[in-house]
Amino acid sequence: MALDTKVIGLLILGLIIGAAIGYGATALTGRGQATTQEEQQTVTYKIGFSLPLSGQLSSIGKLWEKVAYMAVDDLNNMMKSYHLPYRFEAVMLDDGTTEEKALQNVQTFAQQGIKVVIGPAGSSQVKAVKSYADSNHIVIISPSSTAPTLAIPNDYIFRNTGSDALQAKALAALINHEGIKKVVVFYRDDEYGTAFADFFEKEFEALGGEAILLSYSSNLADFASEVASLSSKVQSEGAEAVVLISFDTDGANILSHAKDDPVLSKVRWFSGEGIHGASELLQPSLAEWLDSIDFMGTRPVFISNPLYEEFKKKFEDLTGTDPPVFSEKLYDAVFLAGWAIVKAGTYDGEAIKGALPEVAKHFYGASGWCILDENGDRAFQDYSIWTVKQVGGEYKYVDIGTYSGGSLTFTEKP
Q: pLDDT by residue (tens digit) across 146-188?
């Protein structure tokens, strides 16, 4: 199967080999203990997925759906290869990138007896489901929620990515490196955007820069009026650049208006990870402008990971496109969930919650080392510097540098 190196790494680290040997002889299935593997039938466990198949993250959410099914298939193949009597089934629901639907999905999963949910994507959605998940002992593993305000210990929320407290530092360092001292931060008025903007402001000002915060309503079909307000703010403040904190569809709409604005089309633009992977940015008219202004962004990655390259190739072969941001974290979240269920020995939310940190501590996958901190968030995180540029006659997302351990390094000329 794909990514067998992951299995080898798990076994060498000792956690899963202990589980594999123990379960191969006397497997705990949640229904009791069997004397031999052959005497028991395969037990199927359901994993819920609350993904943005519509709404403001749908451009990448539809690709995440393919990642999710690919990961479940690979996890099941791993179980077969080790003769473990477990099978995992994906139950997929669309949350529309809204808080209300995310909560409805988790409630639906609970009614179906599902104890582990991958997603939702956005921090405001995670905040919306937190109380219900905690009260009903449902383990939530978000591959993409990054708001520092959700870094809370001892709850049922786990996040397989670093918080934006770290990314804000990386983005501030990048913009400072480019010699820019005054920016307008144009951000979504939700949990993700507000927290990111606040942390970025502190980090950028610590480097001697000035950040002017301007929020926009995220619940609009078109952002022409908000972009007009942004243009006035940039002009009146004499800002040198705009920092965009958005999701994919809203971000693409904002940029499409900005490229035709006499003020905004002439300043530098920077971004976080929220827009990375949106197909709209690769349309020639928009991509050409982004290339001309040296557009740059940051996104969380694990640097120099051969397992990611294997994952990327498999995804490209399957879909014909590069995996969007957080894809590898979503992929690994499925394995974390599956192995936590196996280690727990029972399909019980409290037991799975207790097993997950130990599984993550010993898990190295496509997204790198998944060890969690005391808040249940990814403990270590590097960042890639990305842009949109022409490669082989077509525009693509290209990583041109890294931010790791407080140091910024460019691997390609910006």
A: 999 999 999 999 999 988 889 999 999 999 999 999 999 999 9
Q: CB atoms < 10 A from the CB of 240, how many?
A: 18
The model's confidence at residue 405, banded by pLDDT at 50, 70 and 90, is confident
Average model confidence (pLDDT) for the chain? 90
Provide the Cα torsion 347, 331, 144, 386; round to 10°: 170
CA distance 119 to 99: 12
Q: What is the DSSP string of 144-157?
A: S---GGG--TTSSE
Q: Beta strands of 217-304 (E only): which ranges?
A: 241-245, 268-271, 296-301
pLDDT at 135: 98
- Return all residues near 218 (Cβ < 8 A) that are at least 6 apart: 56, 188, 189, 190, 193, 247, 250
Residue 45's pLDDT is 98
> For tokens 């969007």, what's the residue?
324
Nearest CA to 56 out of 120, 150, 133 is that of 120
**E-strand spans in 22-147?**
43-51, 86-94, 116-118, 139-142
Q: Three-state SS for 374?
A: coil
Adjacent-strand bridge partners of 88: 45
Nearest to 201 by CA among 186, 188, 190: 186
**Amino acid sitting at position 277:** G
Pick the CATH number of 164-301+382-410 from 3.30.360.10, 3.40.50.2300, 1.10.10.60, 3.30.465.60: 3.40.50.2300
Select the CATH number that applies to the domain covering 4-161+326-369 from these four: 3.40.50.300, 2.130.10.10, 1.10.8.60, 3.40.50.2300.
3.40.50.2300
- Residue 413: CB atoms within 10 A of its CB come to 6
Which amino acid appears at position 153 of this protein? Answer: P
Q: What are the residues facing 184 on neighbouring strands?
A: 212, 242
* Domain residue spans of the chain: 4-161+326-369, 164-301+382-410
**Residue pointed to by tokens 């080392």:** 369
What type of residue is 320?
A: G
